[in-house]
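Q: What structure does this chain adopt?
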Amino acid sequence: MKTLSSANRRSAALLVVPLFLFMLVFFLWPLGTVMQQAVSDNSVLNVLPLTRQAAADWDGQSLPGREVEQALVDDIRNVSDQQAIGEMVRRLNSAYPGFRTLISRTQAAVQASDGPVDLQAVDARWADVRYWQTIKGALSPVTDRFLLASVDLQRDGQGAIGEMSSDASANRVIMLRTFSMTATITVICLLIGYPYAVLMASASGLWRNILLGAVLLPLWTSLLVRTTAWFIVLQDNGLVNRLLMMLHLTDTPVALIFNRTGVIIAMTHVLLPLMVLPIYSVILGIPRNLMPAAGSLGARPLRAFFEVLLPLSMRGVTSGVLLVFMSAVGYYITPALIGGPKDQMISSVIAFYATGAANWGMASALGLVLLVITIVLYAVYQRLSTREQGATQ
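A:
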């Protein structure tokens, strides 16, 4: 009997192995890569390995000794990859301005000589300890620079965390814009989706199928097709503006694309099924005689709704809100096609860093921030669900 039980356990474990491998390859491995990219930066270390060894015992407060200066000269002399030099210069210049011309002059002087080079004679900035402090701080393969920059923070030459200048980064503003637009879309989806879910649950037969099909049909259509359709409908000569002018509600076309209004309209339509379906599934399980029973006991319809139907359907509301909010936070196609420059969400910034600037560290850091926010929201949802289950038991 024990042998049979062990065989059953092995068989069950073998059935789980494909799912585990799928999660490992397509979720855990990419997630680990993103997290590694967000906290790693070898652009300076790859060019200055000797400098790192020589500066290991330097206190970082006064100018380094001759040994560190010679190690820097040897590293610059040994490097042959100009692209690596360029990446190092971008990294250092982003931390402290002036490295672009400083490294260029130093590299020219080093290549013109086969012996020792007096760095301070090449450029007086080598006598400024802040440049050496910046180099020492950038030599570590592990950095919090990208994570700090994702929320508009940075470290100075002494390692203290401070605010970035307003013209250097606007990630925090874009984050706040993303969350405000996402919250607006979530509220609109709830205001439209809840009555629709109640109507769909109260209907029966053919009408329920029609209402359910109207919700499911957008899910069967490509997101790009739906967004493009809204672009056509909302443009100046589109259906909406023609209808408004035909009804004499406006004399000129209303700007509905390349602004926030168009983004909210299109994203609300795209995400509305994610709000309707969870609420509908919960309301469908609520006995229909509860509302008439509350009315027979003297409760007005509005009071019966707030004290009977709404509390019983809160699990579906919470699920719908969570699904819509988490989906809207990372949307890219709809804001990119319909929104203007001031309506882009954080996903557009991630796409820019990943494809435009080839800065995978910043793209990974911003993605990691969104992941943390999503996990926090899911933890809140789990806590609320646990409380509801405890209250009903």
